[in-house]
Design a protein that fits this description.
The complex is a heterodimer of chains A (117) and B (272).
Chain A (H helix, E strand, L loop, with lengths): L1 H18 L5 H17 L6 H19 L2 H48 L1
Chain B lengths: L1 H42 L2 H6 L1 H18 L5 H67 E4 L3 E6 L16 H13 L5 E6 L6 H21 L7 E5 L12 H7 L1 E6 L12
Parallel strand pairs in B: 3-4
Antiparallel strand pairs in B: 1-2, 2-5, 3-5
Classes of the chains: A mainly alpha (117), B alpha+beta (272).
């Protein structure tokens, strides 16, 4: 009896432990902002990381609604970094484009200068 | 029999569980290993460390967590999660470093561009000066230097029909050179003087000579020379350059002369 009660009690405690995984409301808001920021820089579904971020956020929302707070937290954390990576990939690409444009200008000037001499 | 079957089933089940355990364990360790490789690469890259130290630190922290969790039972999905985060932090750090390097390259290229622009401007200026010198030579070849009036260029009568003030198209090339010369020497001013031979009435000749000079002035203005740089004067049949007795002499006398100021804009006074 005693042992059974203890087992039941510890099981309850374990369950309680799971249940008290708090709702990741704050993290979700943060991840939302990160996705928005990436979108503002120009990230779209075409970017693999951006697509992952959007999908995981949607999944996290569904998990929140089902009370699966842990799953929601994991997806939210991953989505935030996915979106950050997407934003940084875009910024890198933009820098490379600027380099390309500037290089073209430099080549044109070099050619003009060569033509004049 | 029953017992044996039950045992067998139990064994199969246990074996199945073990395989599942092993395969998730393997998936974990693969994810952790990938994260580890990514982390080592960014940690050993000094430019990544410099441009994104925080992300490198977070990649390391998440990796340590993933490694710890992967050594426990039942925390496989957590281990994979932190391995994933670590890998992302490493990737973000690498992008940041890439951005910094791009920025440095851009700064250097901007400087190259400015240097080239300056060089190009200098060489253009030089070529304009060369062109100016060439034009000046051309104008000098068409002009004479007179002691009292300075540089004088004569447009002969072939450029006007008898009794007409309209400039003939043959004059265009000379006029264009004149325009370019004035554009390249913005301080120089000109006085355009018209002359005729002595046939016809004096009053008519005076008017015709003024109209011829004016027609040259108008063309210069049309081609962009400021009116304020041009004086117009008609002298009729005064100041002949040859005797009016022969046709050849009269042709010489029907002319428009362009008197140039010096490079500072100082010009000899009008005749008379």
């Amino acid at each position: 009896m005693n042992i059974q009660a203890m087992t039941a009690g510890s099981l309850l405690l374990l369950l309680a432990g799971c249940a008290t995984d708090p709702a990741p409301t704050q993290q979700l808001r943060l991840a939302d902002q990160t996705v928005e920021q990436a979108r503002a820089v120009g990230a779209t579904d075409d970017n693999q990381a951006m697509k992952l971020a959007i999908d995981k956020l949607a999944q996290a929302r569904a998990q929140m609604a089902n009370g699966n707070f842990k799953g929601a937290r994991l997806n939210t954390e991953q989505a935030e970094l996915d979106a950050r990576l997407a934003e940084d990939q875009l910024l890198t690409a933009k820098g490379q484009e600027q380099i390309k444009a500037l290089d073209a200008r430099i080549q044109r000037l070099r050619k003009q200068l060569g033509d004049m001499q | 029999m029953k017992q044996v079957t039950g045992m067998r089933m139990g064994l199969v089940l246990a074996a199945g569980l073990m395989t599942v355990g092993c395969s998730t364990q393997r998936a974990n360790s693969e994810a952790v290993q990938r994260a580890e490789t990514a982390f080592q690469a960014v940690r050993d890259d000094s430019s990544v460390l410099r441009s994104a130290p925080k992300d490198v630190i977070r990649a390391g922290e998440s990796l340590a967590r993933a490694e710890r969790l992967s050594s426990y039972w039942g925390t496989g999905s957590d281990a994979q999660h932190y391995a994933y985060l670590s890998q992302r932090y490493s990737e973000i750090a690498r992008e940041r470093s890439e951005q910094m390097l791009n920025q440095q390259r851009l700064t250097k290229m901007q400087m190259d561009l400015q240097r080239l622009q300056l060089a190009l401007r200098d060489s253009k200026l030089e070529s304009v000066q060369q062109q100016g010198k060439w034009l000046e030579e051309q104008i000098l070849a068409l002009a004479n230097v007179e002691s009292d009036r300075g540089l004088v260029m004569t447009l002969g009568d072939v450029l006007f029909d008898t009794g007409e003030a309209q400039l003939k198209p043959q004059a265009n090339r000379t006029i264009l050179k004149l325009v370019q010369f004035l554009q390249l020497n913005p301080k120089r001013v000109v006085r355009i003087e018209g002359y005729t031979d002595n046939t016809g009435e004096k009053a008519f000749n005076l008017q015709l000579s003024t109209e011829r000079a004016q027609s040259v002035a108008d063309t210069l203005v049309d081609l962009g020379i400021d009116e304020s740089r041009i004086q117009v004067q008609g002298y009729g049949d005064a100041y002949p350059v040859d005797a009016n007795a022969s046709e050849r002499g009269r042709a010489q006398n029907r002319r428009v002369e362009i008197v140039f100021s010096n490079a500072k804009g100082e010009m000899a006074l009008p005749r008379g």
